[in-house]
Amino acid sequence: MTDTLEAGAYNFAYLDEQTKRMIRRAILKGIAVPGYQVPFASREMPMPYGWGTGGVQVTAACLTPDDTLKVIDQGADDTTNAVSIRKFFQRTAAVAVTEATAEASIIQTRHRIPEAPLSEGQILVYQVPIPEPLRFLEPRETETRKMHELEEYGLMHVKLYEDIARHGHIATAYAYPVKVEGRYVMDPSPIPRFDNPKLAACPAIQLFGAGREQRIYALPPYTAVVSLDFDDHPFEASKAPHDCDLCGASDSYLDEVITDDAGGRMFVCSDTDYCRSRCEAGHMGRLGVPQQEAAE
Amino acid sequence: MTLDALLGGFTETPLQSAQAFRAALEALSRPGQIETVTGATPPAPLSVAAGVLVLTLCDPTTPVHLAGAHDCAALRDWITFHTGAPLVGATAAQFAIGTWAALAPVNRFAIGQPDYPDRSATLIVEMEHLAAHGARLSGPGIKTTAQLSLPETAAFAANRALFPLGFDTFLTSGACLAGLPRSTRVETL
Fold first, then answer.
1. CB neighbours of A83 closer than 8 A, spacing ≥ 6?
2. Which of A64, A153, A283, B48: disulfide with A278, CB 3.0–4.6 Å?
């Protein structure tokens, strides 16, 4: 494939119209039943499973030419997965792209919710590897479907209880299960549990796409989302007990970066846009560089 | 089939259907919010908004039911030509189009199955007018409460009681459309 794509070589946003209609119907049913996983006929995409084929299909079905797209991978705009998906939509849909959370109308994300608060009019599209929260407890789809039907979620509480029995606290650090509108238990995709509180009462529409597993689910804005817990072991959003070494933020989710082979390490915001905008505003962490020096 | 049936579809299908879907998504995600759509000019009595929804969501895999005055030759031809959707009776329909009076009784439409609540009908209810006052709405998609001019509240309250089963509704009038998913709680003010 050449670098310059001829106009009209692909349908707008890659997928054909019949496929988009099918995905759009699934998204609407997902919105109508928050947290329920709607089966859809996932297509093969020009990228491997596990690279966000579900998210890409949901984004393709939602995109209009007026949109501004942001793609993040573990919070970062500049990692391989994010760069290639962003480029894919620049080529096939000619949409504007941005790294600034506030400027984006559609944000496709792998395993993070941006630190900056989302607003009405934005759509957050999650890439989901395993949409079924009960899958590692019960491998049979027929059984998990029955469990959702009967609202039989005792097994999930047993799993969290076993965490407490073994570790003294709930050790599930990512893909922490939530209950949506008091009905469906949902896997929020492998976001850190630090992000779980942001799922609830979010002004943006949240859509989840699992390509290999062929499921779409959704959270309309301002939906009640509760992380599962126990009265004596309440849910707690956790992060590394440090400040960002670049921007000094104490409220953001941090990545640990090994800097040498002598035990040196630093903690930096996983949300690159958040970290950069704080640095530009003059905030500085332990290892930060003043903005004028950085520019020279 | 007359020549009229061939006219009135999207002229730029990928772009117009994308914009129409976003309007439908916003409407269903935020019950009470009224969106305006363009692009379709269907034959009477179908409204522009209902026509846009049909072109955006219906295809040969989605059986459509036309109720009452909407079950006319011009509209049958138009939907068949532009979408290829099979026209069926109320119980088999995935989409049902008509006035509220023509669609009644609404309990004949598919509400999904306990293990597959998504296998339910979507009603497209043609209204005289659509306004953000009337019955009080609350639930997912609504920050506190919203209001929408519903044709009645009892049927929607009964539908909500079936949750997670139930039908979903789009209300259309002229170029305006609003959404009312099964998850919305409805009260008369």
1. A71
2. A283
Q: Are A208 and A163 in contact (CB under 8 A)?
A: no
In the beta sheet, which residues pair with residue A38?
Answer: A216
How many whole angstroms separate alpha carbon B149 and alpha carbon A247? 50
Name residue B65's beta-bridge partners: B96
Question: What ipTM score was computed for the predicted complex, to two decimals?
Answer: 0.97
A30 CB within 8 Å of a chain B CB: yes
39-98 in A: which are within 8 Å (CB) of B?
Answer: 39, 61-66
Which residues of B are less than 8 Å from A65 in CB distance? 15, 18
Please check whether residue A33 touches B, CB under 8 A.
yes
Helix (H) or strand (E) holding A238: none
First-to-final CA distance of chain A: 38
Count other C-beta atoms under 10 Å from residue A172's C-beta: 15
Q: Mind giving me the DSSP string for A151-165?
A: T--HHHHHHHHHHHH
Q: Does A13 touch chain B (CB under 8 A)?
A: yes
